[in-house]
Amino acid sequence: MENLYVAPLNGEALKPIIESNHEITKGTAMGVELNAQGDPNQPYVKAVEQYNLLAFEFSLNPLNWIAPIWYATGKAKKRREALETLLGFTQQVINERAEIFDELEKSGQKVEKKRMAFLDMLLNMKNENQLSNEDIREEVDTFMFEGHDTTSSGIGWTCWCFATHPEIQEKVYQEIYQHFGDSDRDIVIDDLKELKYLERCLKESMRLFPPVPAVLRKLKNDINLGGKIVPAGATVVINQYVVHRNPMTYPNPDNFDPDNFLPEKAVSRHPYDYIPFSAGPRNCIGQKFAFYEEKVAMIWILRKYKLTTNYKLHDNLGGNESILRPKMGIPVKVERRN
């Protein structure tokens, strides 16, 4: 048995999986290859990290809210530069894909709708006068900015849950093996619909460790909360990390228990008792894509490897950032399956 220690779990650990299923890496949301795993200093990735850190620092220190102090520190300039990198890269991605899309249209070729990248669908809607250039840029900004870090957080925490619960991991592996057998074939959408126990495990992982631990909302109307009036215009913080640990909703809320998402239990809960992707009109536009992405990644990981660790589930705490990052990384041993 070949052992490999990974802390934290990173792109190199997943390289054999990616190489063995190259078709997955080619079918991306934007139709453009970023090479974010191969190049840790990729400008867009670094700009996202810097922008998030500065935004988080700004929100936590009231002194930063005084404009002269914030600008005097030089951090306002750094945040503006990071934002310019983000917006510039997004526009470059749109322009490059639009050129390819236009060339196909001019040559009389059309991309089948079922094979369109997300950006292709947006460009197609622009040609049908349903979206403006600004609409497309906003959607791509949201998808790229929110989509890359959150899914990696979700995959990492799920690996952690499986490593600390070997009996659950084995049950998931058996479900995968019964479905695929010894085959090394690609994963298709119909496969994802069949693996119900894996789906419950992913949902439970996001209950305990929501990739985005809190969201903000600006109130349009006054709200009465416990006899206190929260006025319209106020910004409220909705903390999924706390909501998902309500003992009245989830018995033994700190335990990793995929049975929390048995159909008969899920149907009896209020929809807002489980909000890893937020909820309402401002919920995550890429939640289905993200869930499929995590499911595909976990199938390939467990097909090839067994995850173990000497730690317990709650030895690893979530770091207080805009994305829920494990303070210890993901200290697991990755053993190649026979």
Fill in the keyword field for this structure.
mainly alpha; 3-stranded antiparallel β-sheet; 13 helices; Cytochrome p450; 338 residues; disordered N terminus; globular
Provide a descriptive summary of the structure in words.
The protein is mainly alpha-helical. The chain has a single domain (about 5-210, about 245-335), classed as Cytochrome p450. About 50% of the residues lie in helices and about 10% in strands. It is built from 13 helices and 9 strands. The chain has helices spanning about 10-20, 20-25, 45-60, 65-70, 75-105, 120-125, 135-165, 165-180, 190-195, 195-210, 240-245, 265, 285-305, and strands at about 5, 215-220, 225, 230, 235-240, 305-310, 320, 325, 330-335. The protein has a 3-stranded antiparallel β-sheet. A two-stranded antiparallel sheet has the order 2-5. A hairpin with a 2-residue loop joins strand 3 (about 225) and strand 4. The longest helix has about 30 residues, at about 75-105. It starts with a strand and ends with a strand. Mean pLDDT is about 80; it is low at about 1-25. GO terms for molecular function: heme binding; iron ion binding; monooxygenase activity; oxidoreductase activity, acting on paired donors, with incorporation or reduction of molecular oxygen. It holds the Pfam family p450. Keywords: Heme, Iron, Metal-binding, Monooxygenase, Oxidoreductase. InterPro entries: Cyt_P450 (IPR001128), Cyt_P450_CS (IPR017972), Cyt_P450_E_grp-I (IPR002401), Cyt_P450_sf (IPR036396), Cytochrome_P450_Monoox (IPR050196). Belongs to the cytochrome P450 family.
